[in-house]
């Protein structure tokens, strides 16, 4: 939020759905359908009462929040409107990979859907994000599976969070997953633009193809 407020004169709305995202995971997955509709209704009210069209709204979501953004876009489409942009930061993989576009984030949910994949390894190995491309532009930094700086010990993870043990534990088990929003946050005001190269796969990139 703070990076966007530095970037430009914008209004930022934060959706607090902490209780709705609590375990069990299957219930959290079910909750995003309702929450997506509620926030979609809010966006329509922004247009109705303040003259802010959905086309001027940029929705940003991480993990299940990225899939929630897809439901928001779907709700608005059903009301004859379309979001301006959705940024999905490592969209959640369990219950969504390979499913119908209607029940996950997909390119039709906004005029522009851009996605950062940072923890796209198989769920059996601890990967929490989707490998499947689901946007107009899908970015796979460092291959999208294992991020530099992750895989450190628990003590190092706590140190990176200034001694905060709960945050350190979260970083320790979800470092790759968190990298997506860290990369996005850094990109907002960075003086060093992030470069991307279109390629069919990470292997083809390394082969120079």
From TrEMBL:
GO cellular component: extracellular space
Keywords: Secreted
A Pfam family per the record: Lipase
Residue span(s) of domain Lipase: 8-205
Localization in the cell: Secreted
GO biological process: lipid catabolic process
Keyword Metal-binding: no
KW Secreted (keyword) present: yes
Primary localization: secreted
Top-level taxon in the UniProt lineage: Eukaryota
InterPro entries, per database record: AB_hydrolase_fold, Lipase, TAG_lipase
Record GO terms (molecular function): lipase activity
Similarity comment: Belongs to the AB hydrolase superfamily. Lipase family.
The name this protein goes by in its record: Lipase domain-containing protein
Phylogenetic placement of the source organism: Eukaryota, Metazoa, Ecdysozoa, Arthropoda, Crustacea
